[in-house]
């Protein structure tokens, strides 16, 4: 952009403003973004931020960006976006409102920008006020010898009656299952006994102790004997019921005897 | 006397009735206890914590009213920090404490401003801080404030994206001698001037990070344009 | 610092002592200073050191007399440590510097089972417990139950080796709300209450006599019980 263009852009600004604007450019890295640059520029107006001329500010900013370009200072994209927007705002403020145009008016946009500047300025001032407060470790101090609070950790254990009973039940249940689960091969079923005895009973013409009907492979181990005895006895009763055999016992705990019924 | 206190304390876990078997110690004695607890701690102690350490049935809040009064105008002061209490030296005597002075890490201008914005606007999102400062907030700035435990994460905002918010901590209040964030200097004026309002920009305002690739902002804008 | 000293000195009305151009602050003010110094200092502070920090012309020894008196009977005391001074917690309040946290934990499964066996079979030896549980009982488990005072040693069994037996205590009965260990429900009751899982482990044969009790019923029962 040519030098005389710059002149026409800034006709409203005074020499001191221009000098300030140039000083700003030297400082461009010191700005914390375009809003900060705008806030600094607005100070050249030496008015209450609420009365700041946004139009004038926009012109100042655009001049500042142009100047930075001339000096081949690389401005962050943010600055250029703001410049474009301010150019747009400027045209809105200068041209009579277009009734066809949607969206906020130039005045509304300008008012919001003024609000943003005022808010940023206020936050700066209050940050300064905050930092000016008495601070710990500088103006007031904490206890020099804090005593450690000893943590005495006490652990108590609880259990409910239900836990207790369930625990016991768990153990007992485990026991009950053990024979059935583990010693399954020690079980001689009623069906097996019947199958074994049906053919044998035909040869039992005389009273014979039913223990002689126990399968050989079930001898020796008490558990297997018990199971085989029980099922053989049950099978014998079944045969008696069928009318194929007779059963007798001379007295309690005496041997149970079986013979074929003709 | 100490024995009585200890005994009274032991009833704490047993008889949990409103009227404990042993009466709570007299208020003057409770005041002594609060005094001892606060003197022993560099950090603020909450009423709840004091009562947890004191014998059953004590009213630490009431004892603190007496204690605070007792230390008015003294070389140390009883100060309230959030829900907790602490003893701190009187600020006018800071000059005596050169030896104890701790060099605090110098905060950058960005960090100070960010801190002030969080304090005055809390709970506040990163996007809101950026909107106020007109510049993106560097990760390092927030990290530094988090690390100093002057700020912490607040609740997520119930807006699209559920952004996290930042709030100041008890450590912050303690450091700046504030009883609560409501006591921040000039808070009332800022509020009445409308400068703490979250005023959404009218359409087509440039947003922070427009030049960069910030997804959040893009979303915000596209939403704005759709409307 | 020098400024502060001068300001403090300015209260003087011009009556100059030989040592100082300015009069020392009033003794009450000196007392405040000593108080603040002792509070903030990490180590006991000698009179000399205090005076070096205080404005010129101060008499820390005299100020300390006042300060010491002020803290008589308080929750903290001003004590002499060698030739230096410090603020310390009153000895009778030492108990406040302990914080007891009580954590309640559920008894481990091993402990519950061991306890249950002792309760149902008492007096019972360790070997018997192990036989019933089918696993060895760790020393820690028994010790824990002894420490909780839920079990104690019973009479020695009059068998070879004279092994000790375990029985449950009155504390145990109190805790579980039992009048005697005989009040513990029997296996039959446990079963009818659905506490015995009749369902055999996967792959096992159905139990004889349990034919009517379908699995569904069992489930219903245990659910009922849990409610």
CATH topology descriptor of the largest domain in chain B: Arc Repressor Mutant, subunit A
Q: Compute the CA-based radius of gyration of chain B.
A: 24 Å
Question: Termini distance of chain A?
Answer: 134 Å
Q: Into which percent range does the helicity of residues of chain A fall?
A: 40-55%
Percentage of residues in DSSP E strands of chain A: 5-15%
The count of DSSP E runs of length 2 or more, i.e. the number of strands of chain A, is 4
Summarize the structure in words:
The complex is a heterotrimer, with one copy of chain A (262 residues) and two copies of chain B (227 residues). Chain A has 262 residues and is mainly alpha-helical. Chain A is built from nine helices and four strands; from the N terminus they run ααααααβααβαββ. Chain A has helices spanning 3-9, 15-26, 34-42, 54-70, 77-94, 106-131, 161-182, 190-201, 222-241; strands at residues 150-158, 208-209, 245-249, 256-260. Chain A has a three-stranded antiparallel β-sheet, covered by helices on one side. Chain A is rod-shaped and about 145 Å long. Chain A starts with a helix and ends with a strand. Chain B has 227 residues and is mainly α. Chain B has a three-stranded antiparallel β-sheet with strand order 1-3-2. Chain B has a three-stranded antiparallel β-sheet with strand order 4-6-5. In chain B, α2 packs across α4 (60-70) and α5 (109-121) crosses α7 (139-147). Chain B is elongated. Chains in contact: A-B, A-C, B-C. Chain B binds chain C through residues 1-2, 5-6, 9, 13, 31-37, 39-40, 52-54, 73-76, 87, 89-90, 93, 95-100, and chain C through 1, 4-5, 31-37, 39-42, 53-54, 73-76, 87, 89-93, 95-99, 102.
What are the key terms here?
heterotrimer; A: 262 residues; mainly alpha; 3-stranded antiparallel sheet; 4 strands; 55% helix; disordered N terminus; B: 227 residues; Arc Repressor Mutant, subunit A; 2 domains; 6 strands; 10% strand; elongated
Short description:
The complex is a heterotrimer, with one copy of chain A (262 residues) and two copies of chain B (227 residues). Chain A has 262 residues and is mainly α. Chain A is built from nine helices and four strands, in the order ααααααβααβαββ.
């Amino acid at each position: 952009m040519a030098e005389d263009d710059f002149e026409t852009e800034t006709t409203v600004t005074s020499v001191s403003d221009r000098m300030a604007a140039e000083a700003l450019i030297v400082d461009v890295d010191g700005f914390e973004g375009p809003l900060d640059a705008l806030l600094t520029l607005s100070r050249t107006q030496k008015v209450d931020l609420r009365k700041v001329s946004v139009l004038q500010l926009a012109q100042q900013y655009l001049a500042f960006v142009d100047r930075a370009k001339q000096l081949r200072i690389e401005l962050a994209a943010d600055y250029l976006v703001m410049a474009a927007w301010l150019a747009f705002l400027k045209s809105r403020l200068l041209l009579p409102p277009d009734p066809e145009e949607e969206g906020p008016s130039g005045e509304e946009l300008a008012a919001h920008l003024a609000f943003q500047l005022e808010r940023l300025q206020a936050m700066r001032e209050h940050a300064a006020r905050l930092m000016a407060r008495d601070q710990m470790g500088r103006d007031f101090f904490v206890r020099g010898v804090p005593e450690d609070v000893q943590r005495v950790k006490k652990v108590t254990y609880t259990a409910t009656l239900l836990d207790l009973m369930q625990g016991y039940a768990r153990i007992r249940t485990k026991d009950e299952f053990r024979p059935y689960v583990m010693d399954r091969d020690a079980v001689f079923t009623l069906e097996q006994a019947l199958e074994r005895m049906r053919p044998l009973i035909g040869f039992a013409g005389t009273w014979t102790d039913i223990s002689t009907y126990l399968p050989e492979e079930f001898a020796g181990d008490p558990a297997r004997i018990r199971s085989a005895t029980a099922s053989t006895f049950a099978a014998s009763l079944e045969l008696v019921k069928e009318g194929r055999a007779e059963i007798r016992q001379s007295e309690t705990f005496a041997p149970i005897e079986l013979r074929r019924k003709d | 006397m100490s024995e009585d206190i200890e005994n009274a304390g032991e009833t704490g876990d047993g008889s949990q009735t409103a009227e404990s078997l042993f009466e709570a110690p007299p208020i003057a004695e409770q005041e002594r206890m609060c005094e001892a607890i606060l003197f022993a701690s560099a950090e603020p102690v909450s009423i709840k914590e004091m009562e947890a350490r004191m014998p059953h049935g004590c009213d630490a809040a009431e004892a603190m009213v007496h204690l605070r009064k007792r230390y008015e105008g003294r070389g140390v002061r009883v100060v309230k920090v959030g829900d907790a209490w602490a003893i701190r030296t009187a600020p006018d005597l800071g000059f005596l404490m050169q030896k104890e002075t701790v060099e605090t890490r110098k905060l950058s201008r960005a960090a100070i401003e960010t801190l002030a914005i969080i304090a005055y606007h809390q709970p506040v999102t990163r996007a809101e801080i950026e909107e106020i400062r007109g510049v993106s907030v560097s990760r390092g700035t927030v990290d530094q404030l988090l690390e100093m435990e002057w700020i912490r994460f607040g609740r997520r905002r119930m807006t699209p994206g559920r952004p996290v918010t930042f709030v100041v901590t008890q450590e912050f209040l303690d450091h700046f001698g504030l009883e609560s964030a409501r006591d921040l200097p000039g808070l009332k004026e800022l509020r009445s001037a409308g400068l703490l309002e979250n005023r959404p920009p009218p359409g087509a305002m440039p947003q922070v990070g427009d030049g960069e690739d910030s997804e959040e902002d893009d979303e915000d804008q596209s939403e704005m344009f759709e409307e």
